[in-house]
Specification:
Number of helices of chain A: 8
CATH architecture of chain B: 3-Layer(aba) Sandwich
Number of domains of chain A: 1
Strand content of chain B: 5-15%
Helix content of chain A: 40-55%
Radius of gyration of chain A: 18 Å
Oligomer: heterodimer
Distance between the termini of chain B: 52 Å
Largest sheet of chain B: 5 strands, parallel
Shape of chain A: globular
Helix content of chain B: 40-55%
CATH architecture of chain A: 3-Layer(aba) Sandwich
CATH class of chain B: Alpha Beta
CATH superfamily of chain B: P-loop containing nucleotide triphosphate hydrolases
Number of strands of chain A: 7
Order of helices and strands of chain A: EEHEHHEHHEEHHEH
């Protein structure tokens, strides 16, 4: 269980399988908050320079084990947390994160790591103020991805797990297990579960209502900072 | 069947198997003569007919370079420092240590997770978090801890030349003077090691003794472990005199 933070800022994160539409929704939240004059900082999973070369190399020659895969992503996250997420939170800004530690909770367990161990490794991460989980059936996600860019990335499809030689089939099996992990952790982590099959604007209307209700009340645009 | 025992849950995806090998680790702060003792121990074990695999800290082909680069750029915080080293260790564990144990080797580890426990805690990481992080690590059969005091350590390290930035914990900003920082950092590390010696039951050896004498005690500890595991029965036991391996690696001890 992650511990709540006591910073003047707010942390909103989105989770969901590839093709759930979570990034689109977060982008719309960002525009909306900025239009109202809030200071917003955006961050993505897996974008720090520190370990990018290593993970890339490891993925290419398939030399990553579930444990090294997990720890390298944790390193990447820790780097971003300390340099990109905590400073704006301390400065009283709103941080929007496209994927958070729950991505690791789901993915690393599907790859074979111990469920409890992964949660402990990420024990230093602050609990988000709102965690949106965009829940979508595998078929819908797959249709969205293949319509947008035709090809499935190997890691998206979990090809390294040798679930199936067919990328489509592998994607279904892999993302199906991820989906199962997300579902299983939703309650424990107080996810705001969104039906991600609806229209983009209808989902966004609900998202904004939740943000207004759970976050903006009691939040000061120009908070007093330490 | 010799199953592996882990600090935590281990590696769930590792199928259960027989691990007839032995895992021996040497711990101690910088400059206590670990590598000299390792070389001598290895030679002795090989004379006895045991297959030996040596492993160190920060040497994995996958991550070793990333650590070197990150240190160069001083881009590490207490979490990334701990996690990168854990990733590096996991890589060596799964690719070197576990296969070697599976194949009946004696694995000699120059530093093991205890080094991380000490360094990470001194850098401000939570003691329990660091132990949980390494829950995938097998518990060694023997931990040989070369214990010294700060005055002895300083007299050994200073003549080697420039004090290393991280060895002196300069990243902790304990002071801008490398000597003071080294002294404070190493003292903090020793305090952690002493605590762990009790917590994990290290075999503590006085590192201020003559290297030959330390070596004799190491061999006694290893012999005792092997006897308790029935490990001696495989090859024949040969008594060889304690002798420093070569002039190049032997420590220079002034005899007056």
């Amino acid at each position: 269980m992650l511990s709540p933070h006591h910073f003047p800022g707010r942390l909103i994160i989105v989770e969901g399988i590839d093709g759930s539409g979570k990034s689109t929704q977060l982008q719309l939240v960002r525009r909306w908050l900025e239009s109202m004059g809030y200071s917003v900082v955006f961050t993505e999973w897996n974008s720090a320079d520190l370990v990018r070369k290593t993970t890339k190399k490891g993925k290419k020659n398939r030399s990553l084990t579930p444990t090294t895969f997990s720890l390298l992503h944790a390193t990447d996250f820790a780097h971003r947390l300390v340099s990109n997420i905590l400073p704006p939170l301390k400065a009283g800004m709103i941080v929007l994160a496209d994927r958070y530690v729950f991505t690791a909770f789901a993915r690393d367990v599907v790859r074979g790591c111990d469920r409890d161990w992964v949660r402990r490794v990420y024990g230093f991460a602050p609990r988000p103020d709102i965690s949106f989980y965009f829940r979508v059936p595998i078929d819908v996600a797959l249709r969205r991805i293949t319509m947008a860019r035709q090809v499935l990335k190997d890691f998206e499809a979990g090809m390294d797990l040798n679930l199936s030689p067919d990328p489509m089939e592998s994607f279904k099996l892999f993302q199906g297990r991820i989906l199962h992990e997300y579902d299983a952790m939703a309650d424990e982590n107080d996810f705001a579960v969104m039906d991600a099959t609806g229209s983009i604007s209808e989902q966004q209307r609900l998202v904004r209502a939740i943000v207004e209700d759970r976050l903006l009340s009691g939040y000061r645009k120009k908070p007093r900072i330490a | 069947m010799n199953p592996l025992q882990f600090f935590g849950k281990g590696l769930p995806y590792l199928p259960p198997a027989d691990y007839p090998g032995v895992l021996i680790t040497i711990e101690g702060t910088d400059g206590v003569g670990r590598s000299t003792q390792m070389t001598m121990l290895r030679q002795w074990l090989e004379v006895q007919g045991f297959g030996v695999v040596e492993t160190g800290w920060t040497r994995s082909p996958l991550i070793g370079r990333t650590i070197a680069e990150a240190k160069q750029g001083r881009a590490l915080n207490r979490f990334t420092y701990a996690l990168l080293y854990a990733a590096d260790f996991a890589d060596r564990l799964e690719k070197e240590i576990i296969p070697a144990l599976r194949n009946g080797f004696v694995v000699l580890a120059d530093r093991y997770v205890f080094t991380a426990f000490a360094r990470d805690v001194v850098r401000g990481a939570d003691r329990q978090w660091v132990r949980d992080l390494y829950g995938f690590a097998p518990i060694p059969h023997l931990v040989l801890y070369l214990k010294t005091d700060i005055a002895t350590l300083i007299r050994r390290v200073i003549p080697r030349g420039v004090i290393d930035y991280f060895e002196s914990g300069m990243d902790l900003a304990l002071g801008d003077d490398p000597y003071d920082s080294f002294k404070r950092y190493q003292t903090l590390l020793m305090r952690e090691y002493d605590k762990m010696a009790r917590e994990f039951g290290f075999t503590v050896l006085n590192a201020r003794q003559h290297p030959d004498r330390i070596q004799r005690q190491l061999r006694d500890a290893v012999s005792e472990l092997f006897a308790s595991r029935g490990f001696w029965q495989s090859p024949t036991r040969v008594e060889i005199p304690v002798e420093a391996p070569s002039a190049a690696t032997a420590p220079q001890v002034a005899r007056r």
